[in-house]
């Protein structure tokens, strides 16, 4: 742990882009591009980050905040600063410890974690690795019976909320995955894999860890009756039969009596519909630019959703977060908390648990510094008077 922590310490790593650079160096191209890439021309992927540049701060000067209180609550759970770790599939391909490393880093930082259906470690083991709030993100891969079994496991393990992702009627066209042979490497025969193997051999440290971990992991939380855990499938194949529609909310509410969080909302109309279907919280999200290319950046969609919800549900957002100042801007526009995905994924790819911890440390320090420069001493003081943003939003 000391060695990996040193690899991501300052001055070698001072921001999230530095972690991205290290992850790119350590990971095979197919794994890095799965984490880094978006759909089609990646217009939305880029816009998610660029849109934050259109927001400027209006600080209160001549104010010295000796301490900043970054604590908040999400669906009744206390977290040390307003961040949740978003669900990232195939995490065990990025690093052998996968979700376990992420959960431990989240626990140390005092933040929550949303565990993906496409996880490589058992949801019970992930829950046991953290003392913070843990939510389970549900896809209907394997069908209703398989999903109901996963819901039951999540409830018994102590997961506090169920996240329904609704923007995956089909998988987005992730061109980098096609070029790099993701489908062939995960599910093809040995002959179809051959053209893509050199990228693996070019990263011996990752390959050694991958092989010692047993190679391709199964989907440990998708248990097919009579067969056991479903083999790992490429995301396009997995999502094709896993879409959640509004009609599914009825039986899901019967299976899960706790809070339901709806992820993938970009309009006020869908926000109201989600609330009508029983959502306790909404995540403004375009799937990190990985689904429908050309939709609005999430920070741009946030004000419309905040207005539509009108305080009747908690609103979170994800996508495009690379600095703590981005988090503060979203909080000023009304988000309760922010989900980060790629930011910690780069850390995981760079140095496992130490890298995730470093990503969280960077973002937390950024948030605290930004708040002090704004003249704010607590998260609750952040509001829209502290930012300028385009009137068309």
Highlighted features:
393 residues; globular; eight-stranded parallel beta barrel; TIM Barrel; 14 strands; two-stranded antiparallel sheet; alpha/beta
- Please state the structural category: alpha/beta
Percent of residues in helices comes to 40-55%
Termini separation = 45 Å
Question: What is the averaged pLDDT score?
Answer: 94
Q: Strands of the largest sheet, in order across it?
A: 4-5-6-7-10-11-12-13
Strand content range = 5-15%
- Biggest sheet overview: 8 strands, parallel, barrel
Task: Compute the number of structural domains.
Answer: 1
CATH topology: TIM Barrel
Tell me the name of the CATH class.
Alpha Beta
Uncertain parts: none
Count of distinct strands: 14
CATH architecture: Alpha-Beta Barrel
The radius of gyration over CA amounts to: 20 Å
Shape: globular
Number of helix segments? 19
CATH superfamily: Aldolase class I
Describe the structure.
With 393 residues, the chain is α/β, with parallel strands linked by helices. It has a single domain (2-388), classed as Aldolase class I (TIM Barrel, Alpha-Beta Barrel). It is 44% helix and 14% strand. It is built from 19 helices and 14 strands. The strands form 4 sheets. The chain has an 8-stranded parallel β-barrel, surrounded by 6 helices. It has a two-stranded antiparallel ribbon with strand order 1-14. Helix 2 (16-26) packs antiparallel against helix 19 (342-374) and helix 16 (268-276) packs across helix 17. The termini are far apart.
């Amino acid at each position: 742990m000391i060695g990996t922590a040193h690899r991501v310490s300052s001055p070698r790593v001072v921001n999230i882009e530095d972690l991205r650079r290290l992850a790119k160096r350590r990971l095979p191209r197919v794994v890095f591009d799965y984490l880094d890439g978006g759909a089609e021309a990646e217009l939305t992927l880029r816009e998610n980050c660029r849109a934050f540049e259109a927001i400027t701060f209006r600080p209160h000067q001549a104010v010295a905040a000796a301490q900043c209180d970054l604590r908040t609550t999400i669906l009744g759970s206390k977290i040390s600063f307003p961040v949740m770790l978003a669900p990232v599939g195939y995490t065990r391909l990025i690093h052998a410890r996968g979700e376990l490393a992420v959960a431990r880093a989240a626990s140390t930082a005092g933040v929550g974690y949303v565990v993906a259906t496409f996880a490589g470690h058992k949801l019970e083991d992930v829950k046991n690795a953290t003392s913070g709030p843990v939510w389970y993100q549900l896809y209907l891969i394997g069908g209703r019976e398989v999903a109901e079994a996963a819901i039951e496991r999540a409830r018994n393990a102590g997961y506090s909320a169920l996240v329904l992702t609704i923007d995956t009627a089909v998988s987005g066209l992730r061109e980098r995955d096609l070029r790099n042979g993701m489908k062939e490497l995960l599910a093809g025969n040995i002959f179809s894999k051959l053209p893509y193997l050199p990228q693996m051999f070019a990263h011996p440290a990752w390959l050694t860890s991958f092989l010692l971990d047993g190679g391709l992991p199964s989907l440990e939380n998708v248990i097919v009756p009579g067969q056991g855990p479903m083999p790992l499938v490429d995301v396009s194949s997995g999502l094709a039969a896993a879409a959640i529609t509004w009609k599914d909310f009825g039986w899901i509410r019967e299976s899960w009596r706790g809070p339901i969080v709806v992820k993938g909302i970009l309009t006020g109309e869908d926000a109201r519909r989600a609330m009508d279907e029983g959502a306790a919280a909404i995540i403004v999200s375009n799937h990190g630019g990985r689904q429908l290319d050309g939709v609005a950046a999430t920070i741009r969609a946030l004000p419309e959703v905040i207005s539509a919800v009108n305080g009747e549900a908690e609103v979170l957002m994800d996508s495009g977060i690379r600095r703590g100042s981005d988090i503060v801007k979203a909080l000023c526009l009304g988000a309760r908390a922010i989900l980060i995905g790629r930011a910690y994924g780069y850390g995981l790819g760079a140095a496992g648990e130490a890298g995730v911890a470093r990503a969280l440390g960077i973002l937390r320090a950024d948030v605290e510094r930004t708040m002090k420069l704004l003249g704010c001493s607590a998260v609750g003081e952040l509001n829209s008077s502290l930012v300028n943003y385009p009137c068309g939003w």
